């Protein structure tokens, strides 16, 4: 059996939480040069649905490492009835940054019950990799990301609003046409940076840092 096959078998035959974690870490450490195949990706996606948070974290790391080739299997696995697996899938899609995950990230930021999932979605929307898209398509996607992030400025959890500030910074810096999205990003960040609109100091500080970076000033 080839090394990837052995790692997959180890995951599927794991008899305890610890052996599952160890086996998943080993499989997740594989990369394209190891001959990763569809079965390996499917196995990592399957782990997302197991009741083993440590192994799920390792699987997410592995899927992010594999990048765009993991996106379709993740999207095909989404099951509204399995919240845990879906939450981990959102984290993986956010980390990969492929535009095919846009709709899932938008939905997660707007309505997911888990603050950590909304936080991951906010960061993901600010760091989608759009270089391969044409100008009009790229601007349309960035506009959707911006709309979702602006709405999330009102999220009830400060950790999500902090991530929104990071996401808004990413949108503003990625906007090659400063007259397109950067003004709206700045306006939303300005709100998060002011005490009368944002009660949590660390969120205000992060928003202020983002504003300085958008203005080309050194970050601190």
Give the strand content. under 5%
Oligomeric state: single chain
Topology pattern, helix = H, strand = E: HHHHHHHHHHHH
Largest sheet: none
Helical run tally:
12
CATH topology (fold) name of the domain at 3-152: Leucine-rich Repeat Variant
Word description of this protein:
The structure is a single chain. This protein has 220 residues and is mostly helical. The chain has a domain at 3-152: Leucine-rich Repeat Variant, CATH 1.25.10.10. It has twelve helices and no strands. α9 packs antiparallel against α10. The longest helix has 17 residues, at 135-151. The protein is elongated, with a radius of gyration of 19 Å. The model has no long low-confidence stretch (mean pLDDT 92).
Structural key phrases:
220 residues; mainly alpha; Leucine-rich Repeat Variant
Question: What's this, in brief?
Answer:
This protein is mainly alpha-helical and 220 residues long. The chain has twelve helices and no strands.
Give a topology summary:
Blueprint: H1 3-12, H2 17-28, H3 38-47, H4 53-66, H5 71-77, H6 83-96, H7 102-111, H8 115-125, H9 135-151, H10 158-174, H11 182-192, H12 201-214
